[in-house]
Amino acid sequence: MARQIRSSSDNSVPTFTVQNLLQYPEREVCTFDNAYLSALRSSGNFPDGTVFCLFDRDLRSDASSTEGLCFLAFTFTLVLRFSFSDFIMDFFRTTCLSFSQTMPMLWRVLVVLDRIKNTHIPELCVNDLPIVYRLRSHGSSRFLFYSTTNKRLVLCTAKNEDEWKTKFFFVNRSSIPGGENFSVKWLTKGKS
């Protein structure tokens, strides 16, 4: 059964619903504390005016909210800034996946394909992805790309990323462009 969490007594703080999708939630306690948030806030990776939710050990990355949106800190090590490129945003709009339920491998592939689109194949679109990739759940309703051919289009994307599941944070949806349009709940079955 889902339970609701309000991370402080302040009414402007989003209310989150625990979806209970994580297989081992005790192993996924957030380690991205207020010190990390402070560094992220000053990094320029988010637009001015973005409201970051304070660190809360009780929240997991599968918490859903119509007011708050979860991001994996890992994605910002890939030289990404929010708002992501049109190609990456189209992927999330098309699949209805949440940012935090996608594994590092999927992000790496998206970044490489986005760069290919920008430099060599401007007509590349998200609807072309099923030619070479399918979405596959890899436990706890997290998704990665599964190659549909024997030859991978993008190599070396399966590298392990330490602690990616425990480094996440939330922002107020209303403080970022288009925040209200992103998925509220994690999907349990991906769209191809």
How would you explain this protein's 3D organization?
It is a single chain. The protein has 192 residues and is α+β, with helices and mostly antiparallel strands. 18% of the residues lie in helices and 14% in strands. It is built from 3 helices and 6 strands, in the order ββαβααβββ. The strands form 3 sheets. A two-stranded antiparallel sheet has the order 1-2. A two-stranded antiparallel sheet has the order 3-6. It has a two-stranded antiparallel sheet with strand order 4-5. Strand 1 (4-6) and strand 2 (15-17) form a beta hairpin. The chain is globular and about 45 Å long.
Strand content: 5-15%
Can you count the beta strands?
6
Shape: globular
Q: Could you give the order of strands across the largest sheet?
A: 1-2
State the share of residues found in helices, binned by percent: 10-25%
Low-confidence stretches: 1-11
Class based on secondary structure composition and strand pairing: alpha+beta
- What is the mean pLDDT? 88
Task: Provide the succession of SSEs.
Answer: EEHEHHEEE
**Radius of gyration of CA atoms, rounded to a whole number:** 16 Å
The rounded distance between the terminal residues' Cα atoms is 29 Å
Q: Report the biggest beta sheet as strand number plus sense, adding barrel if it closes.
A: 2 strands, antiparallel
Total of helices: 3
